[in-house]
Structures are given as C-alpha cells and as structure tokens.
Specification:
The complex is a heterodimer of chains A (343) and B (356).
Chain A (H helix, E strand, L loop, with lengths): L5 E12 L2 E13 L4 E5 L6 H9 L6 E11 L5 E3 L8 H6 L4 E4 L13 H12 L4 H14 L5 H4 L9 H13 L5 E5 L7 H18 L2 E6 L2 H7 L2 E6 L2 E7 H6 L4 H9 L50 E2 L5 E2 L13 H4 L2
Parallel strand pairs in A: 3-8, 3-9, 6-7, 7-8
Antiparallel strand pairs in A: 1-2, 1-4, 4-5, 9-10, 10-12, 11-12
Helix pairs in contact in A: 3-4, 4-6
Chain B lengths: L2 H4 L13 E16 L4 E17 L3 E5 L6 H8 L7 E6 L7 E2 L5 H10 E4 L3 H4 L6 H11 L6 H13 L16 H13 L5 E5 L7 H18 L2 E5 L3 H7 L2 E6 L2 E7 H6 L4 H9 L41 H5 L5 E3 L2 E3 L18
Parallel strand pairs in B: 3-8, 3-9, 6-7, 7-8
Antiparallel strand pairs in B: 1-2, 1-4, 4-5, 9-10, 10-12, 11-12
Helix pairs in contact in B: 5-6, 5-7, 6-7, 7-8
Classes of the chains: A alpha/beta (343), B alpha/beta (356).
The complex binds adenosine-5'-diphosphate (ADP) (2 copies), iron/sulfur cluster and magnesium ion (MG) (2 copies).
The site of iron/sulfur cluster (SF4) has 13 residues of chain B, from loops.
Chain lengths: 343, 356
C-alpha cells in the first residue's frame, strides 16, 4: 500500500457565534492518496468549503479548527499535522500554494484585482522556487499555455477583469498549478460555469493531473461531475463524512440512505421524458441545531424508530472497504439490515 | 409521495397542443451601446434577434442555451419588462380575444401581467427583504384588485399551504427561510393571482439536487392543478428533459433548434444542440471514457459583434466556407425546426448514443 498523501481524522472546525457554536465540520475522517482524485459531495451548508479551508488553515474567523489531525506527508518525507500549525506561521506558508494549492468557484477569490495575471503567477513562482524573474516569466507563459489560454504572452499583461469567466477560471488554475503542487483542492470550480465550459475545465484538470501526478480533492454538489472524475468519494452530511467508498461503489452499491437519496434525486439524461424524480424529504437542518442520534434520521426513509433518533452511529468499515456511518450497517445490526440496505 | 408520482405516470392534464397561448414572431430586443457624455450610439447588443415560436396551451416549453444567449431577455420581453425593438407578440387568453402585447395599453398590459407571471432564479434578490412573506405573496392580489383585507390573508395562507410552507410563516421575513423555501415563496407569489402562463427563469438552477427535485415535483403538481402553461428557462439539460414537452435551443440571440423533447434529445439536428448534450456530465462512472464527447472550442459568440454567416461557425466542427457567409434560416427537418445548412445531411449524436 502506498503512503497516503493526506490523512484527516476527527477534524472539527467550529464557529462560535453569539454564545452558540456552529459545528461546520464535526469529526471528519478522510484519506487522499498520491495521484488520486477524491470527490467531496454533499448539499450546500454541509461543511465542504470549511473542511477544505481547514486543510490550508484559511478558515475565516470566528471559525477555528478545534480538534483532530490533518497529517500531510511532505515532499521531504516528513509528516506534519497541519491542524497543529500556527495558521500564520512559516511552515504552513511554505506548504500553501507550493505543496497544496486551492482553486475556488469564484476566481476572484484567488486572483487579486489590481495585479496583472502575469505578475501574480510570476510572484507565486518566485515565492516558492529559486528562479530568476525571467525564468519565472517563462514558466508563467508555459503554465498559461498548458491551461489552454489563447495568446498567453499577451494575457500576462491582462488584468483579471479583462478576461471572460472561463478564461479567468483558467488563469486561476494556472496560478494554482504554477508551483506543481502535489495536492490541488478544487472547491466547486465549475459550479458557476456553463456545462460546455465545465466539460472543458474538467478535461483540463484531468489531463493536468495525469501529466503532473498530483492528487485532487474536488468539492462539488453535482454527482454527474463526481461520476466523471472521481476515484473515490466522500459524502458529507451536516459536518461529517457519512459514506466513503470507491466511485463505482458509490454509484452502484451505495450503503448510506442519504447517498441513495441523492442518487435518486438527480435528473439523468436518457430517461423517459416526464419521469418523476424521487426526492429526499425535508431539508438540511441548521448546523447549530443538530438532530439527536443519527443526524440524518428526520429525513431518512430507513430510519429505525427508537434507535436512529437516539444512537449516534459510529464509523463502520465494511468488508469491501466502504466506510459508512449508519446504524443499518453497524455490526450488531446486520442481521436486520439487508431488507432495506440493498437497492 | 403519491402512488401516481412514484410510478412516474405522466398526467397530461388538459394539454391541448393546438391552441397557442403565446405567439412570438420575429422578436428582436436590441440594446444600444453608447459611448461618451453625449451617449452616442456606437453599436447594438443583439440580445434577441429575430426569433419566432409558439407556446401552446398546457405544454411546458424549455428554453436552453449558454449564458448570455438571450433566454432571460426573451422571457422578459414576453411580459414587456424589457421593450422589444421589433417583431410581434400575441397573448391569447383562454376566454377572450388575442392581445397584441407590443401595442397593449396600460390596462391590457396589466391584464397580461396578471395572466403571465415570472419565477426567478435567485429568490434572494427577487424577494424584498423588508416585507414579510404575507405581503410579498399578497402584493399581486392587492394590485390586481383580486382580494382585499382579511380575504388577502386567507388566500396567502392557502397559497403557502399549497406550496408546502406553513401558513404560520405569513409574518416572517425572507431571510428566515432556506433557499428552497424562498423558491416556494417565489412560486406562491407568481401563482397567487391565478395566472395561466408562468415563465420559470432558471427557477431550480441554484438549488441542491434534493431540493431541486422537490421544487420540480411541486411545479408539476401545480401545473396540473391550475391548468398552467410553462416556459421553462434553464441550462441543465437533464432537468429540461424531465420537465419539458418541447425544447427551444438558443445561440447568440437566435433560435437554432426547436422541437419535441424526445426527438431533440435522441436525434439533435443542430451541431450546437449536439455539443450541449455531449457536455452534460453522465452520472455513472461506468460510462466514463465511452463514446466520443464533443467539446466546444472557444467562447460563446459576442452578441454585440456577431460572427458573419452562421453565428456558431467559429466553434462548429462541421462548418464549411458557406457557413461563414450565408446565414442559415430556421426550417423544418423531421420533427424539428433547425437553423443549420446541413441539418438534413449530418448525423449527430443524441443521448441515446450513450445512455447509461
Ligand atoms: N463565517 C461564518 N460564520 C458562521 N458560520 C459559518 C461561517 N461560514 C460558514 N459557516 C457555517 O458553516 C457551515 C458549513 O459551511 P460551508 O463549509 O461553506 O458549506 P458548503 O461548502 O458545504 O456549502 C454552514 O452551514 C454555515 O452556517
Ligand atoms: N439591459 C441590458 N442592456 C444591455 N445589454 C443587456 C441588457 N440585458 C441583457 N443584456 C445583454 O443581452 C445578452 C443576453 O442576456 P440574457 O438574456 O440575460 O441571457 P441569458 O439569460 O441567456 O443568460 C447578454 O449579452 C447581456 O449582456
Ligand atoms: S450552419 Fe454551419 S456552422 Fe452553423 S451549425 Fe450548421 S454546420 Fe455548423
Ligand atoms: Mg462551499
Ligand atoms: Mg438568464
């Protein structure tokens, strides 16, 4: 077995707001192997972005990483717990943008408005790599070419606002890839794009990954995108990973009722016109008002009364490697589980 | 969920495909581009450029295309929220004479805007944050003189119940609701005045899949219950396929293809439609890498500086010299209407070719 690149366990990121605590991330476990694409899916508000930001320690205040470990196996061979680092310290800064880079839904989150694309990329390169300005510039042109930016030399002089949405997305990706990170965190980078542009950007990320061997943690709420790019998938609900499995198992052998509900509610091309979609009833509860027991129980069609509303399921590892947090799958429940457990 | 809904049985309601409710002929919406303090007109944004279509009573017509192609402008022009600069729009009420929307006077226009309503994508910006939900939904009832006083409140409470919200919420403000709930409020507001035509402009685009499925189900139930006709503007073709009887595809302000959903999805006849279908992510990892995917190079055409000939030609894999000079007209090909010179000779890929 290869050494994982990133190992997260028991991660909690909480927001203290006016006396109450919002548990945005509440005990997440996750592994990313070198070169692998892990997709993190879940409905909005379930903590995907805060989980991603926790890795780079860029959670906005009053949010704080309050528990858990984020072990990164550094290029040097050393293992560092990012959760234990000072978010403003030298070590995390030497990792951010260099070994772990991030792209966002809104490119202006990463691109400053007052600097040209070229100077932003060359600055990033020079911050981490010992190269001359001229060499950095050449590398910037190379990376812009690589992300499919037309006329890259001219685009070096462009300001972000002068580019179209799709081109700005490419510029942001170029910036993130400029130092050849080993892990790219992509937080819904295609959500705001047209499907046509999304398809091109997904192809691009896939190609670059194959070429550079980097791992990708890809956050999305679109299961179609997951099916297109993931090796493995983590499904989040209310700040926790409720199911983690290989992509094929998620789509063809999902165990968690939430995952199954999500799969039933996606519209699919090629299905008869007018076919009714199934839905998950109700909606995601407020994170400061977490239901008792299994936090999915109020919406769950397979809920066991008297049990699911009382017992908080723990993480269960099934023989095929899938990890699931659901009482239907906890060992001592298995004799009663299969009826509803298989689709 | 009802048994009927669960089995996916489609109730066609009172759909009569022969009676037009909205007839659009040669519609143009051009915005002037001005420069300098004198606001000299230096060009035109041809947001909608000579499009014609009919919406039939009882159907759901989808309107799709990449952002900026003119979908919203088309919808708004039907209600004259933006002024058309050319063409003809006729609204035919179920029990009355056709109304020429472009020349309609104040009263006539008011009647049109009661019969034809809009639901928007972003319920956050379309709901006034300073008004309680009751007033937001009741506004139209008051304005159109449909109800007054306590009657308004009763109707609003009914409407809230009908869209799946509790009537007790009537005094709450929009911020106290989730995105899905706000969309229900937007729907209640549109339906409160008993319209017969509803334009849903990206009404489910910003919602999570589970909530999206709930709202789609609600829209379908309301359609049957209130005998509605929908113009469903969207960019997610999988959603469109679920809800629409017919689909119109726009590119750079023009209609490039229109026809029954089933046949457009199975056998698209415009290269742009083929590319749109091909770009939709397929939610099954087992079909990954199978079948050739069409990728659109370059950017959406700039509607203030359209390419010559067929506006799609710079991105079209089938383009020839003729496409650079001669503009294709919309014409019948099979069950569809298509604007491509080669619509009857090209064999394009539909969703059947890689259905999971
Ligand atoms: N600045 C903040 N202050 C308080 N709570 C926040 C803040 N940012 C995020 N949250 C809470 O954290 C939860 C998770 O947010 P986020 O990670 O952005 O979700 P996702 O990316 O899955 O949509 C949200 O429900 C939200 O209430
Ligand atoms: N009021 C306006 N003034 C100038 N241009 C406009 C106006 N409204 C829309 N446009 C332009 O018209 C085109 C079509 O826009 P829109 O109808 O919103 O497209 P869609 O809804 O398909 O994304 C775009 O290029 C847009 O910038
Ligand atoms: S007319 Fe020509 S350029 Fe336009 S879609 Fe058809 S083949 Fe392509
Ligand atoms: Mg997010
Ligand atoms: Mg629009």
């Amino acid at each position: 077995m290869t050494q994982p690149l990133l190992e997260i366990s028991g991660l909690k990121t909480h927001f203290g707001v006016g006396g109450t605590t919002i548990r945005a991330v509440d005990g997440v476990d996750l592994v990313v192997n070198p070169g692998e694409t892990v997709c993190l899916v879940g409905e909005s508000g379930c903590g995907k972005s805060m989980m991603a930001r926790s890795i780079l320690r860029i959670v906005p205040p009053p949010g704080q990483v309050t528990a858990g470990q984020i072990n990164l196996h550094r290029q040097s061979g050393k293992v560092v717990d990012l959760a234990a680092l000072d978010p403003k310290g030298a070590e995390i800064r030497s990792i951010r943008g260099r070994e772990v880079a991030m792209i966002f839904q809104e490119p202006m989150t990463a691109l400053g408005p007052v600097q040209t694309i070229g100077s932003q990329i060359t600055d990033a390169i020079q911050l981490h790599l010992k190269v001359s300005r001229k060499e950095a510039r050449n590398q910037a042109i190379e990376v812009l070419t690589r992300v499919g930016m037309p006329r890259p030399e001219q685009r070096l002089e462009a300001y972000p606002f002068q580019l179209s949405g799709g081109m700005r997305q490419r510029a942001m990706i170029a910036l993130a890839l400029s130092c050849q990170p080993r892990l790219l965190i992509a937080d819904e980078p295609t959500t705001a794009l047209d499907v046509t542009t999304q398809a091109v950007i997904l192809d691009l990320i896939r190609d670059l990954q194959a070429e550079m061997g980097m791992a990708v943690l890809f956050i999305t709420h679109d299961l179609g995108v997951v099916a297109e790019i993931a090796d493995s998938v983590a499904v989040m609900y209310l700040g926790r990973v409720v199911e983690r499995a290989a992509v094929d198992d998620i789509f063809h052998n999902a165990r968690h009722p939430y995952t199954r509900g999500l799969l039933r509610s996606i519209p699919r091309l090629g299905i008869r016109v007018g076919e009714e979609l199934d839905t998950i009833e109700g909606m995601v509860p407020n994170p400061f008002n977490r239901p008792s027991g299994c936090s999915f129980h109020p919406r769950c069609v397979e809920m066991i009364p008297g049990r699911c509303d009382r017992v908080d399921p723990s993480r269960t590892r099934l023989p095929d490697g899938t990890e699931v947090r659901c009482l239907l799958h906890e060992p001592h429940r298995q004799e009663t589980a299969p009826a509803g457990a298989l689709q | 969920m009802t048994l009927v809904a669960k089995q996916g049985i489609r109730r066609s309601g009172s759909s009569d495909r022969r009676t037009p409710i909205y007839t659009v002929e040669g519609l143009r919406v051009h915005f002037p581009i001005t420069r300098g303090v004198m606001r000299r007109i230096v060009g035109q944004v041809k947001a909608v450029d000579d499009i014609s279509f009919i919406v039939y009573r009882g159907e759901t017509l989808g309107l799709v295309g990449e952002s900026g192609c003119g979908k919203t402008t088309t919808g708004r022009a039907l209600l004259r929220i933006v002024e058309p600069t050319g063409g003809r729009i006729t609204y035919t009420p179920p029990d009355g004479d056709p109304i020429n929307v472009r020349t309609a006077g104040r009263d006539e226009l008011k009647a049109v805007r009661r019969a034809a309503r809009m639901v928007f994508q972003d319920p956050n910006s379309s709901l006034n944050p300073r008004l309680p939900v009751g007033e937001i939904i009741g506004e139209g009832l008051h304005y159109h003189g449909i109800a007054r006083g306590a009657e308004i409140e009763d109707r609003v409470a009914d409407m809230l119940r009908r869209v799946g919200l509790r009537p007790e919420y009537i005094r709450r403000y929009p911020h106290a609701f989730s995105g899905g709930e706000r969309q229900r409020i937007g729907i209640a507001r549109a339906l409160a005045v008993n319209p017969n035509f509803v334009i849903c402009d990206e009404a489910v685009s910003a919602l999570d899949v589970s909530v999206q499925a709930q709202i789609l189900r609600l829209l379908r139930e309301l359609k049957d219950e209130f005998d509605l006709t929908y113009l469903f503007v969207g960019h997610d073709l999988a959603v469109i396929q679920h809800i629409c009887d017919r689909v119109a595809v726009m590119y750079a302000g023009k209609l490039v293809e229109i026809g029954p959903t089933q046949s457009i999805f199975a056998t698209p006849r415009h290269p742009y439609t083929e590319a749109l279908l091909s770009a939709v992510p397929r939610p099954d990892p087992r079909v990954r890498g199978t079948g050739e995917r069409v990728r659109l190079a370059g950017e959406v055409a700039d509607v203030s500086n359209l390419p010559s000939g067929c506006a799609f030609h710079p991105r079209c894999r089938y383009a020839t010299e003729r496409c650079k000079t001669e503009t294709p007209q919309l014409r019948p090909v099979g069950e569809q209407m298509v604007a491509c010179h080669f619509a009857d000779s090209l064999t394009l890929k539909g969703v059947g070719s890689y259905a999971a």
